[in-house]
Amino acid sequence: MKPFDDACLEESPLHALLAPASIAVIGASNDPTKRGYKAMLGLIQGGYSGAVYPVNPKADTILGVRAWPDIKAVPKAPALALICTPAATVPALIEACGRRGVKGAIILASGFGETGAAGARLERDMLSRARAGGVRLIGPNTSGVFNLHYRFNLLALDHLRAGDIGVVSQSGNMLLSLALEAEHHGQVGFSTYVGPGNQSDLGFDDYLRYLGEDPHTRVATLYVEGFRDGRAFLDAARKVSAAKPVVVYKSGATAQGQQSASSHTGALAGSYPMTVDLLRQAGVNVVPYSDDILPVAEGLGQLQRSPGRRVAVIADGGGQATIAADRLAEAGLELATLTADCQARLSAALSAQASTVNPVDVAGATDAHPALLATCMAIVAADPGVDAVLLVGMFGGYARRFDESLADDEMRGAETMVELAGTAVKPVVVYSLYAPVKPPALTRLRTAGVPVYASIEKAVSVLAALSERGAYLDRPVPPALPPAVPGSRGQALVAGARAKGRSLLEPEAKALLAEHGIGVLDERLVRDADELADAARVFAGTPVAMKVVSPDIIHKSDAGGVALNLEGEAALAEAYAGILRSAREYDSHARIDGVLVTPMAPKGVEVIVGLMRDDTFGPVVMFGLGGVLVEVLEDVAFRAAPLSREDAAGMLEQLKARRVLDGVRGAPGVDKDALIDLLVSVSRLMEAYPDITELDLNPVIAYPDGYAVVDARILLATDEESAP
Amino acid sequence: MKPFDDACLEESPLHALLAPASIAVIGASNDPTKRGYKAMLGLIQGGYSGAVYPVNPKADTILGVRAWPDIKAVPKAPALALICTPAATVPALIEACGRRGVKGAIILASGFGETGAAGARLERDMLSRARAGGVRLIGPNTSGVFNLHYRFNLLALDHLRAGDIGVVSQSGNMLLSLALEAEHHGQVGFSTYVGPGNQSDLGFDDYLRYLGEDPHTRVATLYVEGFRDGRAFLDAARKVSAAKPVVVYKSGATAQGQQSASSHTGALAGSYPMTVDLLRQAGVNVVPYSDDILPVAEGLGQLQRSPGRRVAVIADGGGQATIAADRLAEAGLELATLTADCQARLSAALSAQASTVNPVDVAGATDAHPALLATCMAIVAADPGVDAVLLVGMFGGYARRFDESLADDEMRGAETMVELAGTAVKPVVVYSLYAPVKPPALTRLRTAGVPVYASIEKAVSVLAALSERGAYLDRPVPPALPPAVPGSRGQALVAGARAKGRSLLEPEAKALLAEHGIGVLDERLVRDADELADAARVFAGTPVAMKVVSPDIIHKSDAGGVALNLEGEAALAEAYAGILRSAREYDSHARIDGVLVTPMAPKGVEVIVGLMRDDTFGPVVMFGLGGVLVEVLEDVAFRAAPLSREDAAGMLEQLKARRVLDGVRGAPGVDKDALIDLLVSVSRLMEAYPDITELDLNPVIAYPDGYAVVDARILLATDEESAP
């Protein structure tokens, strides 16, 4: 892990807010049902050492602390104001904070943008007064903040341990749930918590950068309903994930959930699969289930990464060994193949019945000597073909199950495991069915930073996260890219089309692509009989396709504007006339720029490539296989532009139907390098041409040698869209 | 639930073994590390009331109970013998048991079939002596047995509550894991447990039937590595699941897991997706994760079923409402649309901020009055559009989070929920983030049979299982089928082919199918110039396909034996000659029976239909979409033959790419009824023709009106295979 020191922490503008030297509680209260009471109680009970200034015009003291009638009256400008009063009062209070020199405020109240137009106006008013007064804002509609290493806790949550998991959660109940899970676990603790609320000023990207800098945080854990600025978050994630793990649970995975999410926070949930792909590209560990958040955060915080995907399983029961093998395979992990030497050493340590093929089943050999499990773990950890070790079974419960006298042996086993975990670069993870009972051997492991899970499924989720993170850190770091440069012809085409208030015509789009080295089929635009004769000569002997070219006809087939498999001048002439006739019948006002003639593309694997400008994430590339796979199964991959070659290769690998690219049913595989070139080139086009709003290459036919873009559509911004 | 009484229980041959009147413990021991000690301890500590006869030639007493030198010496024939001695001693002991009149034996030892050929011989020897002596066997290699309602516990597991979950588990650690989870839960209890071990005599089907009859069991829960007789298990499951829920976790979901499983028990794991489909067809709730076993068993045991898929969610936090909505959608459940009346009643009960659109978010209205949550649950439960109610959030924890004084209000809320659960036919399920803390209100719910989960994901798994079971129970019960009858032509074709020692040729297969009303393309077998001319005349004006017919050429395309899209007599003649030439070049010894001429099938949706004889499950029908979907994504459905129309319709619905059948990219939908007819007809062919071992219709082209079988392959048993 990258070393941090306090000097580094001081740099963050959030330091003053999340570890404040003093705090005013505006709306502090003696009424136990009020948040202004809870916050005061949290500060006092938590042992916060800075100055606390309760502000309440109607009270002399709050929980025994001298109160002040308003923020002006507070004797020294506090570093932070916690505002517990209703929404309508907030803008004026923020203005007063700015005048008093308060640099940051936390706003608990709801009733802002999430409730509709009037709330949104109130929120804008608050924000402009904050900007004018130099006050940074957490919230509004935040569940609060704590920083346990500074004994700063506005939530009055008890039973919290200070630890190394930093949390940012848009749901207060989720924080509460993680806190109770941690309490129940016993050894897991938190560093900083922030509820970002409406992210009016500060947002997920800011909080993530803070957690990246915070020396007490070893893993950043985020529950996200919506990003305020997705592109900024990806930038922050790339930066932070280079140094420490970033775990994200993104809610709104389904249309049903998205509907629920947007009624809740007013945040645009975006497409879930796209969000997941983009977060992973930026080094984030995305967890699909809320139950996985804490286990994965714990495991990543303690173990950081795995050098690879090959797991050795030590089990004291065949059934759970099989479950582990199933789950590992589903998670994309492998059962390591143990060397003969390793197996011989296991045989020597165990009985003849033991299975020394991974998953290793000790077959009763440990019943009277559970520490043998630790011996086996050390043996497999020394095998160069093993990247991680998973213990599965009843370790920690031998004393209870068999004989109390085994407790010492179990504790010796735990010590060996702790030692192993301390020296091996390979992660060591323990599943024990006795984990809920918390026997001493397991508590010893947890205290020493060896994660212990009560679920095989969770243990495997953690191993998968460690391996994913290891692969991310080991990827070749892409070279810095020079700025993307438009081509002179492309620039002229775009400028010309924009001047006419339209997008690029198909031949223009293809010309632009060709200028950037993207392989398009040879083609001729035909506007009269001479050009038709010319095209017939050029493509003689090859069947051709003909397509109408018109800025007014989007769905060419519907307009009768497409003819396929034509050969010979007569057939071309007939099709040419027919296409023009159909197009005019379809839309008599359509401007028709001609008919495009291209050779029919030979058969190959149909793929599609897209480039779009996402509202929150900016330019995003999409890749998928053509036809029913993309339409029905939505088997597509997304990456934020620009792409490295590694990113592009990952898109190909990610498809469920990726085997089609390798060739099935006797078909040859496609030229993946060429597709990677294509994706990388396409990914830079929005940067080179800021007017491009959408690009669709559909289909592209991929061949064993190269590919051909058969149809291309490039949409340009209208004047309104491209306003700076 | 179907009522059971003890009279009914008495019928099961397993009663004597699983609730024995007396027991001999052969190999009983005073050594605490031995299983013969554990078993004695379990019987004594558990309070078993029958006679116990320890058998040990070297001891006078075992744990204070008088011991006997051998089974002959035991004064009264015990109902059951528990055999704790090593494998090699077992066959002789079983024989002695038979002589002594013992009707059942439990064999703990491993070292039988699971270890190889020598062990398998020993197992066969043991079984034949058991059969000869009239002794039924549990095991060998069993983890043991308990029946808590009879205080009969051979496992010496403490902290077990008697309850209504019956368990059969091929993994002892899995039972231990469930027991610890139940102990930790506090309110969940078990009825009977059996470890089936190698299923030498009694197997999963027998144990499941017993649990079906056992009046103390409300849900049968099975951890299965392999079935001894899959077809018998399906029969038992169909019978038992009509009366009570059957929950199965099948291990070996992946190739990696299957490999591990077969090295463990020696059982054939079979194809996991097929097994899952067949179990579901028989009314089993299959749980995909081991973590789900106990929660789903608890929920199904208590609530049995849901009338539908429409769930109302009451939440006290928007974030967890969204998570619930996501998980419900992923599980195939719907958010119920609440009526205006229902929403008005919710509004009246809650504050203005509350969202009364499902998921209902109380938005703070319950902070001071948590019993309001129960009021809301009752309101939505009364909505006719709601099938089940899910509470999500911090119920049970209000007192701790806000104010101790809320404890009474929470308890009143719990009472309302209990009342609601008792009167509504709609299941009521609670997720609380305070569940791990076990506050009194949640304990009250659990005690009264309202399941409470510490995980939204688990709560949703339970709702999905309840809804799946409800749909199963509500399905139209298929009419009893008359025996399948072969056609006279089909019978002659099969007999003729068998006499020649070969399978059916393609035209024979199609003739057989046609006789059973299955739609095949018109065709002509061409063997000479006259027949060729005849075929050319019959199909004039239609492009045709030509395929070589030979019992020796399986891969017709590879042999150059296929020509497509032919029109006109000349083209047919040329193709005919070419096919014969290529086939002879491919295999000069191949018997060639002619060339099949069929019209080219018009374009449509390609599907495949298969029928195979599975080693353990018997005849199984497969259905999938053709092409890359089946090859790469394995998007197929399985059902045990014979199929009801409901079964067949379920196969179409189950495909991930099912939307293709409804028509995509402007294509029309297919005739699903015709496909269902096809599947039902095919499913009976193995019964009608016991010689058929495999049938492949690939492809079948489905149209908006009907379908056409384009290629058919029917394999027949060889003489060895069909030996009775």
TrEMBL record, chains A, B:
SUPFAM superfamilies: Glutathione synthetase ATP-binding domain-like, NAD(P)-binding Rossmann-fold domains, Succinyl-CoA synthetase domains. GO terms for molecular function: ligase activity. Keywords: ATP-binding, Ligase, Nucleotide-binding. Residues 17-112 form the CoA-binding domain. The keyword Ligase applies. It holds the Pfam family Succ_CoA_lig. InterPro entries: Acyl-CoA_Synth/Transferase, ATP_grasp_subdomain_1, CoA-bd, NAD(P)-bd_dom_sf, Succ_CoA_lig_flav_dom, Succinyl-CoA_synth-like. This is Acetate--CoA ligase. It comes from Halomonas cibimaris. The lineage of its organism: Bacteria, Pseudomonadati, Pseudomonadota, Gammaproteobacteria, Oceanospirillales.
